[in-house]
Amino acid sequence: MKLSILDRSRTRRGAPDSAALTGTIERAVHAEHLGFERFWVAEHHAVPGIASGSPPVLLAALGAHTSRIRLGSGGVMLPNHQPLVVAEQFLMLEAMYPGRIDLGVGRSLGFTKPVREALRRDRNAPDTFADDLDEVRSYLEGKGAVTARPQVATPPPMFVLATRRGLDYAAKAGLPVVVGGPILHGAGARIPELDRYRDSFVPSAAHRDPYVMISLEVMIENDGRARELLLPEAWALAQSSRTGEFPPLESVADINAQPWTPRLREQVDATIASSIHGAADQVRVALDALSARTGADELLASTSTFDRDALFESDRLLSLLDV
Fold first, then answer.
1. pLDDT cut 90: percent of the chain above it
2. Which residues pair with 101 in a beta bridge?
3. Is residue 111 predicted with pLDDT exceeding 80?
4. Which of 5, 59, 17 is nearest to 311 (CA)?
5. Which segments within the chain are labelled E, that is strand?
6. 3-state SS, residue 101
7. What is the pLDDT at residue 108?
8. Burial class for 204, CB neighbours closer than 10 Å (0-12, 13-18, 19+)
9. 46 in the Ramachandran plot: left (φ > 0), alpha (ψ -120 to 50) or beta?
10. Shortest CA distance to 53 belongs to which of 84, 101, 17?
11. Residue 288 belongs to what H/E stretch?
12. pLDDT value at residue 110
């Protein structure tokens, strides 16, 4: 599998949001040095734990600090944007950093009702994702009702962040997919949804064959601390289910000093169990098994932790794996 990174610009308790964005830029430079295929960023709105609300703006900064690695969105949420505007933003990025830009798109709405209202999104509004997907692509390829500019020699490739329905959309449109979450963690030797995506894939001008990228947390630590390093992200997820607000990362010491309920411990353990973690040899074996089960072409590691040095070291060790 090719190896890539998704960085969500996670904020940390006691540090300004700007430090999260600076950290993302530093990590992209590091990822390029290590030889990763891609470095992607995310879109989240009014979330205390995530500083990135505008992938195109952040990608422009990343492009100015790197020279070779592909840069993209994991992803732009089409329900929040007009298709023409999305196309214009990524055509501009492609014009500035030719051959290095990816457009990953998803269909998630805002995390809470106030955020959805601020984005002018109604949870009960018609689902126009498939039509929006086609419209964005028409503008990127210069075939839309109007000509999106700037015009470029080769449009940036599109990827679909896919749930089960998203896989059907992507197959029909002839687009690559990014798959994560529960779909990866079943018990079968194969994943039926991915087999269906490949079997129903309709070749497109840009993509003659199906392409699957899998996304999950991968933490490598050869001193036995990998599980501990995953605790801050798992704790934040558990807190968000309790409070409805996804918080900044906290240090392991601060987390361990707080009261734990049995339910909280269960949630944290489940989140950590859904990741791949351990020493480098253990992680390589687990990734090989996941590669065989999914037939994935690429891994998009979405790892986060409070300790930036440990995160950078995990990235380094991941880049050395032969998977």
1. 83
2. 71
3. no
4. 5
5. 2-7, 38-41, 70-73, 76-77, 101-106, 158-161, 177-180, 212-216, 218-220, 276-278, 298-301
6. strand
7. 79
8. middle
9. left
10. 17
11. helix 280-294
12. 67
- Neighbour count for residue 177 (Cβ, 10 Å): 25
Q: How far is residue 132 from each of residues 77, 84, 126, 155, measured CA to CA in Å?
A: 11, 9, 12, 17
Amino acid (one-letter) located at 124: N
Structure tokens at 110: 């805002």
Query: Are the beta carbons of 167 and 133 closer than 8 angstroms?
Result: no
pLDDT of residue 246: 93
Relative to beta strand 276-278, strand 76-77 is unpaired
The verdict on whether omega for the bond into residue 150 sits within 30 degrees of 0, i.e. cis, is: yes
Give the position of tokens 């952040």. Answer: 58
Tell me, what's the pLDDT at 274?
94
Give the chain's mean pLDDT: 94
Say how many CA atoms lie within 13 Å of 188 toward its Cβ. Answer: 10
Residue 199 Cα to chain centre, angstroms: 25
Residue with tokens 């390029």, as numbered in its chain: 32
